UniProtKB/TrEMBL annotation, chain B:
<dbReference type="InterPro" id="IPR000515">
    <property type="entry name" value="MetI-like"/>
</dbReference>
<dbReference type="Pfam" id="PF00528">
    <property type="entry name" value="BPD_transp_1"/>
</dbReference>
<keyword id="KW-0812">Transmembrane</keyword>
<keyword id="KW-1133">Transmembrane helix</keyword>
<feature type="region of interest" description="Disordered">
    <location>
        <begin position="1"/>
        <end position="26"/>
    </location>
</feature>
<keyword id="KW-0813">Transport</keyword>
<dbReference type="InterPro" id="IPR035906">
    <property type="entry name" value="MetI-like_sf"/>
</dbReference>
<protein>
    <submittedName>
        <fullName>Cellobiose transport system permease protein</fullName>
    </submittedName>
</protein>
<comment type="similarity">
    <text>Belongs to the binding-protein-dependent transport system permease family.</text>
</comment>
From TrEMBL, chain C:
<dbReference type="InterPro" id="IPR050490">
    <property type="entry name" value="Bact_solute-bd_prot1"/>
</dbReference>
<dbReference type="InterPro" id="IPR006059">
    <property type="entry name" value="SBP"/>
</dbReference>
<protein>
    <submittedName>
        <fullName>Cellobiose transport system substrate-binding protein</fullName>
    </submittedName>
</protein>
<dbReference type="Pfam" id="PF13416">
    <property type="entry name" value="SBP_bac_8"/>
</dbReference>
Length: 336, 301, 452
């Protein structure tokens, strides 16, 4: 950054202190003041970032670290919920058995398909809704409140509504489909209907949430960027493509990362959509996600060690995805 | 002293240019929404609000009617009665107070700490910045379902069972918040503004107070709302740690509603409805905060 | 060129002054909140779980219960408090046992966060007896508590091998078959309960045969039975040994009784005798309201459930016949953890709540059938009737059934195994899968869940 001639920080002839002539004593005082200030400034610039990020890490060290270490340690043992301190060392057995575990891979496949079906439309719709909300609207507060209503609705109440909607014999969706001549679909019975239904609940619940995040980011896009694009003859759609989207890149990255992590861990919606009391994600585990499988093994079947290994395996999978993503984007950048 | 040479004709020229441009050509926040926009919003709002409205409809009915098919699509006459029973039975007054404290402190603290940390990660240079940021994101990647078991062991040792701090403190760890504010500030806080503030001799703390917080206001409002809801609706952890006879939060308090060999769904829905209404109020208050920040004016040439 | 932005001192935006005010408001909220928090924390410290003395010198006893207990609704707390003026009773209730039990386990293993009294459902009692018995007091040593005050199999369920009884039985769920008189008549079957009972006395196969007769006459309008899970449960509950043997080994795959029950239910499903429904779900509730099935395996509390979901015109249309073989479905126990602050008072309360007189009162109000045989001769039981069954003497019918229930070997993972056989097993047959496929899916799921 080029130094400016009119700023006070650097010692410049006739700079910040008008009326002073370069003399020996005043200069000494000024110099000392400036060096003191600049040293304080240097110290501040050096240490303040650590002070700013420290609270997060301190809180994490206090309340987040021990649970992580404990589950990591438990994953190397055979331990049940009914006796969490009674651990039998089994080494990596809980991890290696994952390779043979059909249910784990079934859940992984389901997590992938449900994740894609629920995340991609969700983020696109969220972007569109945010764009509309960015206009000057009447009753804008009402629209914004309505957007977060799904996230605020108690998940048990929401799932009851959706179970009623998606009921095979008496549900409203099958009733509507019947009116146009389609046979009733077993939403809770079959594989793809079940995954679509669960994805619909997820989309319903999280779209407004992401739309608000996009909206907040859109508020920070300076108006003159739009105006100069409009002056250049860009239509509204092209302004959206060339002004809005690029400015939102950091936020879009955020929602993609967070939604991916969230999609990998989803368990509330498939848990409550299943008519059964266990957590098997449907009679044939057709919509059991990894998060739900983890919950089933840990809380329903009480296998704390095994469930911990599943949790850390999920973490490892995300790391692998992240690394692959990095490699791909680096390869793309290198080739372009 | 240098002066800005601002040609007096320039504003007029700009105005002329602007007036030549049809209103419809401008995107962004100065444009009014057309009828299509309202239609889309109306559909979206209908879909978003329907389950909540149905919760109210269910709460206004009785258990027998709810079992019949087709399910009721309009209000019955039981709403006031069910709401009253739910309020008294679950002792919701106390639960509301407790949860407001918990969610309020949680949201406020997360917002402040995340903004400050996000600012550091976004705009300040320091050794280990990237590694630490990756660590922050990494902490989100372990599914939290099991963590509450060891957390309970910790809380039991600290003798915090049935105390609100057992619910507040673990909730303050928010990698989501830090990551969110970092991304937002990367985009919304131009370096020049920070530089200018520095140049005027501001320490980092003053920069945070006078530059970062005002610039981050829309994002802080959104983050605050999201974290408030998350704390308000949290069930698994508060349920493990708190009791109804001690210091319940709303979700703990309503967990017993409608009990009996035949669960009374209408009462359960009444409790769910009561539990959600304060949130809508909070949204209405904070929704107003999601307006443009100061940057729009400040960065004009 | 001048700096493009205003210097810091003049950087007052729309958020300037109001922002400072907002900051003050924020600070006020934080301090207020922290103050309230500190206040609440103190309160929490005083009223913390485990009971304590509140101001007037009263002892507070806290109970941790799940949805089906009904003590408060039957007025029992008020009655006890009148009899013992220095006692105050408070309850923590969770509607669903699926939420209650995992939390209870966590509290037991850390010995923290327990109430003075904790309820345990029959599905979990084996596990609690097997792994957490050392956290409970021995109720058999309480003054006035005698083993013969309860049905023998009920007492055994809560007793360890060393003879420690960790909980006193509250209610039981002796099963009969509840049937719709009108639907039976329409299908050409007898509707008098003696005759109906004779149709299938002693043999579940005869029950299926009756179902086939029903289906032939009723066609597609209604089903014979409510769900495959209900049938499987009824058949398995009448066996002496189901999933565990006397030494505690898991035998569900090799026990011929289990396979026979599964095959019988699968047969009923293949023949279209049972609805393709999972019990206690909204869709299943609707089939009750819409009178879609003729029979259901029926403990006394099921009558209350049917009443809660039925339309008004269904009253009096049901009746109760003796099941082919008796079994138990449901019931709970009350235990007193050692870690409580008022162990003796809690024990006295539990002994009182489970005494025959109180159990009879609960039956009258809640429909929870007593586990104390002495209550069976009380007027509340002998004269009991239910709206759904008109003037049928349900008290007598269920008392008889209760006495016939075998002492069954129970094990900690009973519920998981049964859930697997039902939700990942027989329900699939109603959806078109073969019995063999259903058995394979069920056993694969169960073995994975048991970690065999």
């Amino acid at each position: 950054m080029a130094t400016r001639s009119d700023i006070a920080a650097s010692p410049v002839k006739g700079g910040a202190a008008p009326g002073r002539t370069p003399g020996s004593r005043p200069v000494d005082k000024d110099d000392r003041r400036r060096t003191k200030l600049s040293r304080r400034w240097q110290r501040d610039a050096r240490w303040s970032p650590y002070a700013f990020v420290a609270p997060f890490f301190l809180l994490f060290a206090a309340f987040g670290l021990f649970p992580l270490i404990y589950t990591g340690w438990a994953s190397l043992h055979q331990v049940e919920l009914t006796a969490p301190t009674d651990m039998t060392w089994v080494g990596l057995k809980n991890y290696t058995r994952i390779f043979d575990d059909d249910f784990f891979w079934n859940a992984a496949r389901n997590t992938l398909t449900i994740g894609v079906i629920s995340t991609v439309p969700q983020l696109m719709i969220a972007m569109g809704i945010a764009h509309i909300l960015n206009y000057k609207l009447r009753a804008s507060t009402f629209w914004r409140v309505a957007m977060l209503a799904p996230y605020a609705t108690s998940i048990a109440a929401a799932t009851l509504v959706f179970v009623l909607l998606f009921g095979r014999d008496y549900g409203m969706i099958n009733w509507a489909l019947g009116a146009v001549g389609v046979d009733p679909i077993g939403w809770q019975d079959d594989k793809w209907p079940g995954q679509i239904a669960v994805s619909t609940i997820i989309i319903w619940r999280w779209t407004g949430y992401n739309a608000l995040i996009y909206l907040a980011a859109m508020q920070a896009i300076p108006q003159d960027l739009y105006e100069s694009a409009a002056l250049d003859g860009a239509s509204r759609w092209r302004q959206f493509l060339h002004v809005t989207l690029p400015s939102l890149r950091p936020t879009i990255l955020f929602t993609v990362v967070v939604s991916t992590i969230g999609a990998s861990q989803v368990f509330g919606e498939p848990l409550l959509f299943d008519p059964n009391k266990g957590a098997s994600g449907g009679a044939e585990h057709q919509f059991q996600t990894l998060g739900l499988y983890l919950y089933e093994q840990g809380w329903v079947n009480q296998h704390l060690g095994r469930a911990s290994a599943i949790a850390w395996a999920m973490f490892a999978i995300l790391i692998v995805i992240g690394i692959i993503n990095q490699l791909i984007s680096r390869r793309l950048r290198a080739s372009s | 002293m240098t002066t800005t040479v601002t040609p007096p004709e320039a504003p007029i020229v700009k105005e002329q240019k602007r007036s030549r441009l049809p209103k419809s050509a401008r995107a962004g926040g100065t444009l009014h929404g057309g009828p299509l926009a309202y239609v889309i919003l109306a559909v979206f709002t209908l879909v978003s609000l329907f389950p909540l409205v149905w919760t109210a409809i269910a709460a206004s009915r009785d258990n027998q009617r709810l079992a019949e098919n087709p399910p009721p699509l309009w209000f019955g006459s039981n709403l006031m009665k069910n709401l009253e029973i739910a309020w008294k039975d679950a002792n919701l007054g106390e639960a509301f107070l407790n949860t407001t404290i918990v969610a309020g402190i949680s949201a406020l603290t997360i917002v402040v700490l995340s903004t400050v940390a996000g600012f550091a990660f976004a705009k300040l240079r320091f050794k280990g910045r990237n590694a630490l940021m990756l660590l922050v994101i990494g902490t989100m990647m372990v599914p939290p379902q099991l963590s509450i078991i060891p957390l309970y062991m910790m809380v039991a040792k600290l003798d915090w069972t049935d105390q609100l701090q057992a619910v507040i403190f673990p909730s303050l760890v928010s990698a989501f918040g830090v990551f969110f504010m970092r991304q937002y500030l990367l985009q919304a806080l131009p370096d020049e503004v920070i530089e200018a503030a520095r140049v005027d001799g501001a320490s980092s703390w003053r920069v945070v107070w006078h530059v970062v917080f005002p610039a981050a206001r829309p994002a802080m409002a959104v983050l605050g709302m999201l974290m408030f809801v998350q704390a308000w609706n949290d069930f698994l952890w508060p349920f493990l740690v708190l009791t109804q006879t001690g210091n319940p939060t709303v979700q703990v308090a309503v967990a017993g509603l409608g009990r009996g060999y035949t669960p009374d769904q209408s009462l359960i829905m009444a409790g769910a409805l009561l539990g959600t209404l304060p949130l809508l109020l909070v949204f209405a208050i904070f929704g107003k905060q999601i307006v443009g920040g100061i940057m729009q004016g400040a960065v004009k040439g | 060129m001048r700096a493009r932005t205003l210097p810091l001192t003049r950087q007052r935006s729309g958020g300037g002054k109001p922002f400072a005010r907002k900051a003050l408001a924020v600070a006020a909220v934080v301090s207020l909140g922290t103050g309230l928090l500190a206040g609440c924390a103190d309160d929490g410290g005083d009223d913390s779980s485990g009971g304590s003395s509140s101001g007037e010198g009263k002892t507070t006893i806290t109970l941790g219960l799940f949805g089906t207990m009904g003590f408060k609704e039957a007025g029992l707390y008020a009655e006890y408090e009148k009899l013992n003026p220095d006692i105050k009773i408070e309850e923590n209730v969770v509607e669903r046992n699926e939420n209650y039990y995992p939390a209870l386990v966590n509290h037991l293993t850390t010995n923290s966060g327990l109430m003075d009294v904790q309820a345990v459902e029959v599905a979990n009692i084996a596990e609690v007896v097997g792994t957490q018995a050392d956290k409970f007091t021995d109720m058999s040593k309480v003054e006035g508590v005698k083993k013969d005050g309860w049905l023998p199999w009920k007492w055994e369920q809560a007793t360890t091998k060393d003879g420690q009884t960790i909980g006193l039985g509250t209610d039981v769920g002796p099963m009969a078959i509840c049937y719709r008189k009108d639907l039976f008549e329409k299908a050409g079957l007898p509707s008098d309960r003696e005759q109906v009972g004779k149709l299938w006395a002693g043999d579940w196969n005869k029950f299926i045969a009756t179902g086939e007769k029903y289906k032939k006459a009723a066609g597609k309008d209604t089903f014979f039975m409510d769900s495959p899970g209900g049938l499987l449960n009824a058949v398995l509950s009448s066996e002496k040994e189901k999933f565990y043997d006397a030494s505690g080994q898991v035998i569900y795959k090799t026990n011929p009784a289990v396979k026979a029950a599964f095959d019988l239910t699968a047969e009923a499903a293949e023949k279209g005798l049972v609805q393709s429904q999972t019990q206690f779900q909204p869709a299943w509730d609707t089939t009750i309201a819409n009178s879609k099935f003729a029979t259901v395996a029926c403990p006394p509390w099921m009558l209350g459930y049917i009443k809660g979901k039925s339309k008004a015109d269904a009253a009096g249309k049901w009746d109760v016949a003796v099941a082919p073989k008796s079994g138990n479905w449901g019931g709970s126990f009350l235990g007193v953890p050692k870690s409580g602050k008022n162990v003796e008072e809690a024990q006295k309360l539990v002994a009182w709540l489970t005494a025959p007189e109180q159990q009879a009162k609960l039956f009258k109000v809640q429909g929870s059938f007593p586990s104390a045989p002495a209550a069976y001769s009380s007027p509340e039981v002998t004269g009991a009737t239910n709206e759904m069954t008109g003037d049928a003497p349900i008290g007598e019918i269920f008392s008889e059934a209760a006495k016939q229930i075998p002492v069954q070997v129970i094990g900690p993972k009973d519920q998981i195994i049964q859930q697997g056989l039902t939700d990942n097993g027989v329900i699939l047959v109603t959806k078109g899968k073969s019995a063999k496929e259903a058995w394979e899916t069920a056993t694969k799921t169960i073995d994975n869940n048991l970690d065999q």
